[in-house]
User: Fold these one by one.
Assistant:
Number 1:
Amino acid sequence: MTHPIPPAVHLRDAVASRGGRPVLRGVDLTVAPGEVVALLGANGSGKSTTVKAVIGSVPLEQGTLELFGTPYGSFRAWHRIGYVPQRTTAASGVPATVREVVSTGRLAQHRLLPFRRKDREAVDRALAAVGMLDRAGDGVADLSGGQQQRVLIARALVGTPDLLIMDEPMAGVDAASQQVLADTLRAEVARGASVLLVLHELGPLEPLIDRAVVLRDGCVAHDGPPVPNTGLHALPGHDHVHPHADLTPPRLLA
Amino acid sequence: MTEMLSYDFMQRALLAAVLVGITAPAVGIYLVQRRQALMGDGMGHVAMTGVGLGFIFQTSPVWMAVLVCVLGAVTMELVRSRGNQRGDIALAMLFYGGMACGKLLVSLSAQAGAGSLESYLWGSILTVAPSDLAVIAVLGAVVIAVTVGLRRQLFAICQDEDFARVTGLPVRTLNLLLAVMAAVTVTVAMRVVGLLLVSALMVVPVVAAQQLTRSFAATQAAAIALGVVVSLAGVTGSYHLNVPSGPAIVLLAIAVFAVFSLLAAPLARRRHRARGEADQGPKVCDVQLPSQGSSDATTPEQRAGLAQ
């Protein structure tokens, strides 16, 4: 490879199935350093499975996966990745505070050592970034859906990751939280982080997106600049201006 | 009181009760967190086969139960982690098979007295032998060290397994470790609460505590404290009333749960009022669906047509 910096994600010819049903039939996906890639597609097209393959929770039957230039099998630098799963709920069977949930994002840093002051400060910073610091002591179950989503994003940010992976971050999120989310994402991109977003539609995050990968039936149907004529933007009369259409090398964003 | 403490068997029973009161909720909280509250119940059933084997081979039923229960727990964890659609059927087979096998083995064995299996099922303060106490103490110490020492790690895997994997935690190893700890706890607790009620002591103190708590750390601490109190009180009551210790402990725990749930509602109201006065946050719900948030009206058909 002649790349000075290896891509954050390099998935090649990925084949995977879930419950015996083939879901990915040879997906290629690359996220360059500092690039924001949206993964689009209809329900069942394999978006979430692709993301789960990238984080290793769905095993690949064929194909290769490299994270930051390291083959998945020998990748250990998990602190470089922040993951925001598709939200069902941030609550579980036992009450937990916002701070406790966000603190789990710090496990890659402090490992078996006790939680120290700099870990606590990192949690505070991440909570402040999503505007939830004043709710740190509240139970996550008492929060709204949008607020729970913000907590999950803070949990991913707490390790200052180089790659942020978000699965449907806008689904069922109230307007205020959508704004916070877009601002947070903008700040992360400005910091130089790469972002892989699963989205149902480009929506309010569109100006941030460098490249869109559209999946259909487990295959890549489009890989390039975000196509305006997808989803609601196909409506006639929708005036569309795209700031990244000139294909600026993504590294310049860093 | 002093008379009760003068008996060796009561000293052992009370010591065992303290250990069980700590270990059962310490492990149980993770099962409740993962909504697997009945897992301990299944393991109790599986442990019966171990007790039966102990009877047959004239060895310690506790060690045999540990062995069988750990094997059962590892099997259950493998079924769970594979996310098999028919996983619940596999578990049902394991539970019923374990129970049936246990009873069969016990009735085949030489010491098939009427009360022999009974004491393992419901717990008995008279049967905690000195050798049992040593086993309970060692196993209990291991369980406490793991469940309290690895609190952050176990919390993470039970809260969100996929996320925990991305933080680089050895999720599979920790899951197996937790399953083994639960299995060990079942066998530690079986002398005091009995196999049929083991699960209650893993679950009830936790759900009772969480009526009043908001954080995981506080829930775990309160559940352990509660577990110790009801275990000691139950064993004492069992001595005075001449009833099996297991049912006494469990009924006490349920009574505590009932009282705590009655207290929970007024307490939560007060908490909310206090916050409402502190910060004048919006009192109305601001949740909006994304389709309402964006200016364009989207129909499900249009959204589904995204990939075309």
Number 2:
Amino acid sequence: MSFLPDISLIAVLLASGVRLATPIGFAALGGVLAERSGVYNVGLEGMMLWGAFGAAAGTYLTGSPVAGLVAGVLLGAVAGLLLALLCVGLAVNQLVAGIAINLLCAGLTAFLARALFGLAGGGTAVSGFASLPVPYLSGLPLIGTALFNQDPLVYMLPVLVAVVTICLYRTQAGLRLRAAGESPRAADSAGVNVTAVRYVSLALSGAFAAAGGCHLVLCQVYIFSEGMSAGKGFIALAAIILGRWHPVGAVVAALFFGLCDALQLQLQFSNPLVPYQIFLILPFAASLVALVWFNKGARQPAATGMVFDREAR
Amino acid sequence: MTRLRDALVGLRVVMAVAVALGLGSLLILVTGADPVKAYAALVHEALFDYWGLSNTIVKTSPILLASLAVMVPLRAGVYNIGGEGQIYMGGLFGTLASLHLPALPSMIAIPSALLCAMLGGALWAGIAGLLKAWRGINEVIVTLLMNYIAIHVVSFAVSGPMIASGAPYPYSDEIPEQYRLPLLMPQTDAHIGIIFGLVAAGMIAFIFARTATGLSLDIVGKSPRAARYAGLNVKAHIVASMASGGMLAGLAGGIEVLGLKYRLFHLFSPGYGFDGVVAAFIANANPAFAPLSALFLGALKSGASVMQRAAGVEGTVVDAIVGLVVILVAGSLAWKGDLLGGLIEGFRLKPTSADQVNPTERQS
């Protein structure tokens, strides 16, 4: 092994980094929407798992991964609405409601997956999306495979990021969403229905997080397993903070965590003498260090975490 | 009338649990099994069978301590979702102490090993407390991330430096006899760990209700600003309450090794830290109710094992039921009797703002 790792190794690393970052990116994007509208979405982890289950179940029942994706995303939106019902409609503490969503999704998917696929026997593999190389571009050195020879969901993520960014910062709907998170009372005075805005953004948030779960099943492992989100939803929460509550920033942070994960896998294979747990810890430790390091100057939307009650003074 | 309303509000958790069990029976029906038979088997196994009951007790004691580990920091307004990681650290420290301390008599050996376990949990949780107090970093995210780190640290320890010679599976050497907890029920696994949990619950209930420490924790939790006016050191309270929570979870981990497993295993806790969060929810963060809610979860988990055999329904239905209980209890928190109060007394109570999340979040 030469001192400088060769280009092809880096290309492989980048490609798997992008693939591993995609679920985190989807969830972080969903989290940005929720927190921008004034609600912590600690339930991202559960919504991801729920989306993964929906994708596996939908694909298993219909045979089509597209149907699976739709099912997963819809289930995610339902979970988002449930979170909204709890912490916007019923004014339950947002962290409590999010944790409750995680536990509900973990319990329900464990039960339903056994009932549907008989997970005791190792589960049932489902079909998924193949990678779609972009002509010419996929042959580029270094970044060709990473950016232009991926599955459709990877391509969808930057498109969604662009759409969300434009909507958030260039449209009236986006202004309303941000206003609901920064100053719900002012928004309310200006005629914005803060409650409705938060319901919609949480439904979208759940749908995005679930899309991340769909990527796990339909593009990575082609099978559902209990607890397969394995903390990615929590890493997404860190990505939101690192990304300064901006869609682009959050997805870039997710990319960083994905690369850590890819590095971990790579090192696990190339250095079997080094205990592999060190590399499993790496993404979590990197999230933690990044949180401590970059926390200064980060400011969350002013009203995130607060219950908005029109009648209170 | 107010009393009636208060009683109903107090019972809302019981109602939420009943509804969840009802929904659970629907799930059982969907799979084609008989819910009455399934629940009967569960209850009989968990509470009315000698070995089943011992199993329930074995599962209740870590859940009880883990729920207290949530309640103590929560009193100061800090969310400790890191019980699972703290249990792992407690297990690691407790095992290290048991394997490396000299051969002391049990009366000294067990307390010193458990103290080390508590230290492990406290240090691990203390990190999150420090980051929260001095850097304002959200403790929910930190504790969640640290769970995964702790699990992998233990996995590293038992598959590398601590692995027993010739072990086919990652586990440590067995701890010496004198470090093992005495049994509560002869010929079973039920050890005296549950007594530690009950004593801790009693002590914490007393501290919360009757001591100055309890009061100052409460003030810090409800209004950090008022606490500062009262001359309380808010940051110190946050760190200390978090570390105390970690201590309790660490104790749970230590007891799991000293009382049940006698070795440190890879993945030795099946999520007791998260069950503790659930139990704290159900008990409405009241330590006096913690034994009951922990027993409920312990019984569900211990009874689940026989449901497959007795009623042909997957034991994982219990996980679904627990999820439903949590979501319904969370939903029921919204109901403070306002509606009923309005009907009875002719006026509607103003919603309280005490539910504001994380009052310390914006202190800087």
